[in-house]
Structure formats: C-alpha cells, structure tokens
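Sequence only, no structure available. Ideas?
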Amino acid sequence: MLSRAIRTGWLLARFLAPLEVVAVSSDTSAPLVACALGIEALALREARPVRTGMGPARAERAMRETLRARAHAPSALVFAGLGASVVTGIRPGDVVIATEVRDDRGVVEAVTSTSIQAALKETGLTVHHGVLHSSDHVVRGPERVRLAESGVTCVDMETAAVCRAAPGVPVLSVRVVVDTPEYELVRPATLVHGVRALRALKQVGTVLATWHPNVSVD
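Reply:
I predicted one. Tokens follow.
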C-alpha cells in the first residue's frame, strides 16, 4: 500500500541500519512481533519482527510456518505496521489499536490492551481505537466512505489473515496511519506524511522491544 514516494522518504530519513528480523526470544512471556513489509520491519527493528510479506495469502502462509517452527506458542502476537484511516480526524503518524479485526469473510479477532496504549502515549504518540478492516487491495474513494459508514476506522491488507493463522493466540493489531481521507497517498504531501508515519512506527518498535502483553480477547 506504499507508494514509491514513501519508500524514497524512508531512505531520506536514514533508517537503513542493519536489520535482524527472525530471531526468537527465549523469554516465553514476550510477544511475537510481526509485520508485512520490509520497510515496516526496518522501522520496527528494535522489536526484531518476523516479516510475512505483503497480501493476505502470503501473510497467512508465513505466519503458519513461523508458529509451526516455534517450540512454544507466543504469549501474544503483535501485528504492527502501516495502515490507512477511512475516517476524518486522524492524522498521518497517529496510531490505531484495533478493537476488532474483520474482512469480507467476517470478524476474526478482537483484543484490547491498556498497557500498550499507555506505553505508546508516553512516547508522545497519538493513539486511537477502532475497527480494523483487512482488504486484499488498496482502499480509496467510495469504498473508503462505505467502510467508514459500516463502523470501520482503519484498513490494512494482512491482519485478518494473520489472525486466522494463529488460532488460540491473542493478536493485537497496531497500525500507524500513513494516509487518510484528507491526506491521501496520491497527493504531493505523501513524502512528508510517509516519513512521519515511519518515524512513528519506529517509536512503536521501541515500545514493543520491552513490552510484555496484558491483553484480553473479547
């Protein structure tokens, strides 16, 4: 869902430090952190995320393989990355924690965490809560309006598939907004908004590197 301009902005922001993305913590109370894209993994590198690849099919397959390779199930799975807001009043760089995850097949997960919200706010990030819809394509225009009218706050492409790949594991979705109805990716300000969102995602990674879950599945 990222444009070439955002990728360029990421390079300009100098986040290209060496990355290790598949190390497994020996601490069984630590959550498993995962994301879809390499550019997201760079931002989240302090949390040592597993990268699933883009799109629901690839993400579901990669997560199933990751969980099968572990000796123990993680205490929780945090799927983090970039997303798009379908409602007004949310700005690029704001964080949305999903209260429910759904796609065209239905609702797949609903989790809450007061501790992660507090930790993110302590870094200065603006945190919202709302329904996350996973789509297999980029959502724009009338479809964005339709989803907002149905109660959706934010959209991505992979979270619902990742939830289905991890039955019995609490899944917490943390999305940093990169575009909104007022600030769409196709506009000239994409570069600035992309860099802002990736910097915010880097702060999320810093928090996740030391956060231990206190989540509940509704």
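Helices lie at 4-12, 38-43, 56-68, 114-122, 141-149, 159-165, 190-208.
Hope that gets you unstuck.
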